[in-house]
Write a structure and sequence with these properties.
By secondary structure, the protein is mainly alpha-helical. The protein contains five helices and two strands. It has two domains: 1-30; 33-42 and 53-116, Cytochrome Bc1 Complex, Chain D, domain 2 (Orthogonal Bundle). The chain has a two-stranded antiparallel sheet with strand order 1-2. The longest helix is centred in the first third of the chain and has 24 residues, at 3-26.
Length: 116
């Protein structure tokens, strides 16, 4: 087999591998949000209701975001809260299963832990 043919085969293989990875990540079944781990700070509730525990942004990050990428990608990033908000919203658009309240908890955790 010539070098030119080998190079083309490797290129085709890499394109197919990348396509399979993108497809697998984009077509993951939607996971229903689960009950968050309790935290120390209560979240607002309706008048007369018992306060709900605050959402754990770190637990949500590990639970919901590592299906498509590892934590090292997050740990290496340094962003402002506004930039983290844009990132989380983009990930939700790609299928990350986070409610609005969970998004806020993740954004807060990211902005406090991985600030620029």
């Amino acid at each position: 087999m010539s070098k030119d043919t080998s190079g083309r085969l490797i290129a085709v293989f890499l394109v197919l591998l990348l396509g399979a990875w993108v497809t697998a990540c984009a077509t993951q079944p939607s996971v229903a949000p689960t009950s968050p781990a309790p935290a120390d700070t209560p979240t607002p509730s309706m008048p007369g209701e018992k306060p709900r525990p605050a959402l754990d942004g770190e637990a949500l990050l590990k639970e919901r975001c590592t299906g498509c990428h590892g934590l090292s990608r997050v740990e290496q990033a340094r962003k402002t809260e506004t930039d983290w908000k844009k990132t989380v919203e983009r990930m939700v658009g790609k299928g990350a299963a986070l409610t609005a309240e969970e998004q806020a908890a993740v954004i807060k955790y990211l902005a406090e832990t991985y600030a620029r």
